[in-house]
Amino acid sequence: MSPRGELRGRAARLARLLPAGSAGAGRAARTPFVLLVVLLLGGGLITLLMLNSALNEGSFRLNDLKKQTTDLTEDEQALQRDVDAYAAPDALQRRARELGMVPGGDPAFLNPDGTVRGVPGAATAPSTLWRPAPPPPEVAGAPASPSPTPPATPKATPNPTSSQVKPAPSTSGR
After folding, report:
1. CB under 8 Å to 106, separation ≥6 — which residues?
2. Span 110-131, pLDDT tens digits
3. Three-state secondary structure string covering the chain
4. pLDDT digit string, tens, across residues 8-65
5. Cβ contacts of residue 156 below 8 Å, gap of 6+?
6. Cα 116 vs. chain centroid, distance in angstroms?
7. pTM greater than 0.70 (yes/no)
8. Rounded CA separation 16/2 (Å)
């Protein structure tokens, strides 16, 4: 008889659950477990490699965006300097004179009740002692002129004809 045939009760039931046979059967049961562990470790390694590559790609993209932001900030600051140079009072005065504008005369103001305060005066041509304001600083990247430009002479305003003159509103009757 076999050794199992002699067992009775609880021992016999346990013997039926265990495989009967040689030592090679235990090794065959371990093979799927080893393959599973190797596959899990290999998959984890590949996943970490892919995650590291994605992080590196994001880092390169971040560096490119930071450089682009720096360049755009420098451009914005240069443009703001140009705007400030053109908005300076002396630059505005020079440009107005080049366009033939003259300083206004005495102003008159309307009160809320409709009366006029002050006496309006006509604008007068500038005196001969007037000197033009210096030009604004050169714009970055623009070629510098080889010789200074002569100062612009103010243009005389044309005399309006009677058809161009509108009558002033009456202020005494209100």
Report:
1. 118, 119, 120, 121
2. 999 999 998 887 777 766 555 5
3. CCCCCCCCCHHHHHHHHCCCCCCHHHHHHHHHHHHHHHHHHHHHHHHHHHHHHHHHHHHHHHHHHHHHHHHHHHHHHHHHHHHHHHHCHHHHHHHHHHCCCCCCCCCCEECCCCCEECCCCCCCCCCCCCCCCCCCCCCCCCCCCCCCCCCCCCCCCCCCCCCCCCCCCCCCCC
4. 788 777 777 776 655 555 566 788 999 999 999 999 999 999 999 999 999 999 999 9
5. 125
6. 50
7. no
8. 13
- Residues 68, 60: contact at Cβ < 8 Å? no
- Residue of 83, 122, 87, 124 whose CA lies nearest to 106: 122
Which amino acid does the sequence have at 46? I
